[in-house]
Every structure is written in structure tokens, then in C-alpha cells.
């Protein structure tokens, strides 16, 4: 069965922008590099030609990947004001030690832990799914069990 990708509206727009760039502007730039390299003569020993052809292959592969991801994507709406954490929900937690951090549960393709975007497939993200404010989510780590208290859903 084909993998499903969960993406936000912003994530889908980002994929669409990348697809348009790669299949338009970037594809043309690579084509021009290939044309310039061909003018230099013997292609078997032409490094610029070989490099441009490799770049073209990588670009075409990425275009196929993006189209495939978009075709198998499920759009996830950002959820606010609900009392339970779902995919797309932004929420605030109290970390061990008393500091506070905001998180959002996102699909794996959009995860960015440094920005507080955690994947629904990660152990931490999965632990928060279905939880409510004031619940403590405990996660077993090699260093011991760590508790995160959900303060609010944003």
C-alpha cells in the first residue's frame, strides 16, 4: 500500500512552488548548461557536460518525487480552540525543569523540531496525540522517564 503524506496548506504550497521552479526555471537553466557544454566538443571527457547531465537527472527525480508526494498527500488543517491534540494542533507544554515550549503536530515531511514542529510519527509527537490540557505525557528515554505537562492548546 502506498504511503500517505500528511501536509498542511503551507506545506502543500511549498511543494507546489518547488515543483513549478524545478519544472520551469531550473529545468531551463540545466538545459542551457547542457547546451553550452555540448558546444565544447568531445562529450566523453567533458566534465561540465557530465555534471549538467547528473544535475538534470537529480532534478527530474525530484520532480517525480514531488508529484508523487502531492498525489498521495492528505491536507491537514491547523486546529485551534479544541480540547484535544490532533494532527495540526498547536499547543504549549511545560518541559522538565519548568520552562515552557510551543509545539505543533505535523506530518513527517514537515517536521522541524527546532521550530517546534514535531512529527505525528515520532515518539514524542505520537505520545501527545489524543491528549488534553493539564495531562502529563511521559516518555521513556535512555536517561529515564521524562514528563511533559500540556498547559494549553493554542
Please, could you describe this protein's structure?
Strand 3 and strand 4 (100-106) form a beta hairpin. It contains 3 helices and 7 strands. It has helices at residues 9-38, 47-71, 123-128, and strands at 5-7, 73-75, 90-94, 100-106, 117-119, 136-141, 144-153. The protein has 2 domains: 5-75, Helix Hairpins; 90-153, Roll (Chitinase A, domain 3). Helix 1 packs antiparallel against helix 2. With 154 residues, the chain is of the alpha/beta class. The strands form 2 sheets. The protein has a 5-stranded mixed β-sheet. Strands 1-2 form a two-stranded parallel ribbon. The radius of gyration is 22 Å and the shape is elongated.
Count of discrete structural domains: 2
Strand content: 15-25%
What average pLDDT do the residues reach? 90
**CATH-assigned homologous superfamily of the largest domain:** Transcription elongation factor, GreA/GreB, N-terminal domain
C-alpha Rg (nearest Å): 22 Å
| Strand/helix succession | EHHEEEEHEE
Tally of contiguous helical segments:
3
CATH class of the largest domain: Mainly Alpha
Give the low-pLDDT segments: none
- Structural category: alpha/beta
Amino acid at each position: 500500500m502506498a504511503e500517505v503524506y500528511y501536509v498542511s496548506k503551507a506545506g502543500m504550497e511549498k511543494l507546489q512552488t518547488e515543483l513549478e521552479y524545478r519544472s520551469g526555471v531550473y529545468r531551463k537553466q540545466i538545459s542551457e548548461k547542457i547546451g553550452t557544454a555540448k558546444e565544447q566538443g568531445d562529450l566523453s571527457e567533458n566534465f561540465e557536460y557530465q555534471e549538467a547531465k547528473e544535475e538534470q537527472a537529480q532534478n527530474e527525480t525530484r520532480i517525480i518525487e514531488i508529484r508523487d508526494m502531492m498525489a498521495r498527500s492528505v491536507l491537514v488543517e491547523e486546529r485551534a480552540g479544541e480540547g484535544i491534540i490532533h494532527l495540526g494542533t498547536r499547543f504549549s507544554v511545560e518541559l522538565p525543569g519548568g520552562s515552557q515550549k510551543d509545539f505543533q503536530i505535523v506530518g513527517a515531511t514537515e517536521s522541524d523540531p527546532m521550530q517546534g514542529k514535531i512529527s505525528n510519527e515520532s515518539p514524542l509527537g505520537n505520545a501527545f496525540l489524543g491528549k488534553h490540557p493539564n495531562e502529563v505525557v511521559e516518555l521513556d528515554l535512555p536517561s529515564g522517564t521524562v514528563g511533559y505537562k500540556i498547559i494549553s492548546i493554542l
